[in-house]
């Protein structure tokens, strides 16, 4: 069975370039991507973008450290619920919400997806829930939002037919995961933050901020193998790459 894949962005962030690429200087403005996967047995969202509070009044939500390192470019109509409606999908119709990880730019819209089961790797959930509220990367208000949370361990085939498969890509965070989607147009690898930039995969150039260097390099090698077998790699925050991505409601695959 093949699924339909739609890609779209929910705003942009300006952050230090060195966070994304070790040794780089200055700032970089990056897209915040999400994906909708339409399968005969359900609708899957991969990541939910930024919290709508960052459109108007980010400081009480993101805190002083967050304000120092982030400039939000995020406007009404770009939040996840609006993006879904533009693709004729009501947020309440989403059956599965896969979070690559629980950083605020990937889980900030979870509260807008009320009826989905949340699929997150167990080490990511445990790590995030154990952190203090003032952690710069994680906000419990984003992901502790009351849906059924399925803490998965390792690879997980969402519909049991190989079309939508979560696989662990630990390294960026302790429990990061990526998603493989099989469409009629071929396989796609939704990296999340396991590989931000095309340059990182081409040159094995690590980001500046990661939980585990060795694990991140192993993930890069796995992505290269998947690419060699024909999969298209969807880089997590690459501004040049995202200029080339057809966005919903246009179908990607
Ligand atoms: Zn991110």
Short overview:
By secondary structure, the chain is of the alpha/beta class.
The tally of helices reads: 9
Q: Report the strand count.
A: 12
H-E order: EHEEHEHEHEHHEEEEEHHEH
Residue share in β-strands: 25-35%
Low-confidence stretches: none
Determine the mean pLDDT. Answer: 97
Give the end-to-end Cα distance, rounded to a whole number of Å.
Answer: 13 Å
What's the gyration radius in Å? 17 Å
Q: Care to describe what's here?
A:
There is one protein chain. The chain has 253 residues and is an alpha/beta fold. 26% of the residues lie in helices and 27% in strands. The chain has nine helices and twelve strands. The strands form two sheets. It has a seven-stranded mixed beta sheet. A hairpin with an 8-residue loop joins strand 9 and strand 10. The two termini are 13 Å apart. The model has no long low-confidence stretch (mean pLDDT 97).
